[in-house]
Amino acid sequence: MRTRKGVRAGQYLALLGYLVFLGFPFLWLISTAFKPARELAGLHPTWIPRHPTLANFRQAFDEQPLLHAALNSLLAALGAAVIAVLIATPMAYVMARRRTALAKAATGWVVVSQAFPFVLVIIPLFLILKNLHLIDSRAGLVMVYVVWALPFALWMLVGHVRAVPTELEEAAAVDGAGRVRTLVSVTAPLLAPGIVATALFAFVSAWNEFFFALVLLKTPQKQTLPVVLTHFIGAEGVADLGPLAAASFLATLPSLVVFAVIQKRITGGMFAGAVKS
């Protein structure tokens, strides 16, 4: 009994340490966003601002086009999430139901491709988009986000498809439904939690992405929010800390709101993909 209690106490301590590790940067970001310039320059930083102010937020909006950049990020993230899910759903269905050697090889390639660093693929992607005249284009950026999100979307949706009992599809086939009708009318509604979870992760990934947007977009009016945030850092590497923290805090809000709104669907989708029929 003592050993079990000790193990459980260790698990709770590890979980508490992990939560502190995750929450500290965000809490410090919020604190910095509301501190006046005098407190930010002080030698003895404090957790809670002594004189909270909204001046950093006003300065951030005055210095950079944050709303326009946020709109660019929103369009790119929504486009990437929708297109990735539309492509990945039928592909995942085929990979899950056709358990051939080719399907297994494709699944293995999907997992391995997640280990590729951005730097490894940026040059081929840049050359391809240049030949297609899609450099400095929102459409080109969405295309890159879709390609980058597809492996994860496929890997996630394959598990959800395998969790759907094949007996339901066989019953639909007996009633005369074809493959496409079965996928749309029978399988897709049961995959809704998984589809929502996959779309959410694709959206958040595209919303927070920085490297591709930095390399592929040159026109200031087309730049996404993560790229615009770097403009608060001067040529000598000195950051305008207050406005940067305020803008960064605002940039994290959409992801937090999306997670809060559909948290139950995410949890249900992830557990559904972990259960096999």
TrEMBL record:
Q: Which UniProt keywords apply?
A: Cell membrane, Membrane, Transmembrane, Transmembrane helix, Transport
Location in or out of the cell: Cell membrane
Q: Which residues cross the membrane?
A: 12-30, 74-96, 108-129, 141-161, 182-207, 244-262
Q: Which domain of life is it from?
A: Bacteria
Q: Does the keyword Transmembrane helix apply?
A: yes
Per the record's keyword annotation, is tRNA processing included, yes or no?
no
The record, for InterPro entries, names: BP-dep_ABC_trans_perm, MetI-like, MetI-like_sf
UniProt domain ABC transmembrane type-1: residue ranges? 70-262
Q: What topology in the membrane does the UniProt record assign?
A: Multi-pass membrane protein
Under the heading Gene3D superfamilies, the entry gives:
MetI-like
Could you tell me which PANTHER family the record lists for this protein? Answer: INNER MEMBRANE ABC TRANSPORTER PERMEASE PROTEIN YCJP, MALTOSE TRANSPORT SYSTEM PERMEASE-RELATED
**Family that this chain belongs to:** Belongs to the binding-protein-dependent transport system permease family.
What is the protein name stated in its UniProt record? Carbohydrate ABC transporter permease
